[in-house]
Amino acid sequence: MAGTALFRTADGGAHWSEVAATSDATPGSTGVIPGGCDALTASFSSLSTGWMTGTCLDAPPPFYVTHDGGLSWAVAPLAPLPAGFNEGTSFPPTFTSSETGTLLTEDDVETGITTSLFGTADGGIAWVLRSTSVGAPVTADFLSAQDGWLVSGGDGIGSSPELYATGNGGRSWTRLNAFPFDGLSLDFVTPDVGWAATDLDQTEDGPPYLVQTDDGGRSWSAVLPRLANPSPSP
Predict the structure, then answer these.
(1) 128 near 171, Cβ under 8 Å?
(2) 46: how many CB neighbours lie within 10 A of its CB?
(3) Where do the domains of the chain lie?
(4) In the beta sheet, which residues pair with residue 42?
(5) Contact by Cβ (8 Å): 135, 154
(6) Residues of the chain scoring pLDDT < 70
(7) Which of 11, 18, 71, 169 has the most CB atoms lying inside 10 A of its own CB?
(8) What integer pLDDT is reported at residue 207 of this predicted model?
(9) Is 46 helix (H, G, I), strand (E, B) or coil?
(10) What is 135-225's CATH number?
(11) pLDDT score for 203
């Protein structure tokens, strides 16, 4: 199993130094990232506070937190989660303010794949389960603490992804439509206007695309990007 190392730069990327690495040593020790899971990714909300997410086989989704810039990491509990894990994946949390944020997990259990949405209202000190839905998470975007959109992989057996919207922080979702786009990123700038585009981090086949909605995601139209000429030098 490949390990994970975290590096830090203080000069805009000119130089990097290792801060911590996966180890079987006691979690929380200086320089130790808890071992046993794959594809760990770090995301920080400040210079000191950050989280690690990734995939665990035969275990719940990994979720680790640091409050000292990545020097030490502790398990941040997520509960409740569906029982009977075959594999669990967590995705980097996103914040719409310094206090409010959301976190998605993909839970592969005996009954199938589900998406769990957790929310925080205290800057990530506590995460509360808000909803669970059928299908794997494809992408999500929250415009505010209340308004968000989620693309789920349908029933996980070949159906098209589906787009859902929430106006209460993810506690309940309304299905808007089938969403026949794979490997995408989602970005809303108002409750009505948003875009979906090919996510270059994904590996799904198909041509690149950019689509736009002006009715909150109920309908979408293709957009042909046009690059403006560069501004003349002063």
Answers:
(1) no
(2) 10
(3) 1-98, 135-225
(4) 52
(5) yes
(6) 1-2, 25, 27-28, 84, 154-159, 183, 199-208, 231-234
(7) 169
(8) 62
(9) coil
(10) 2.40.10
(11) 46
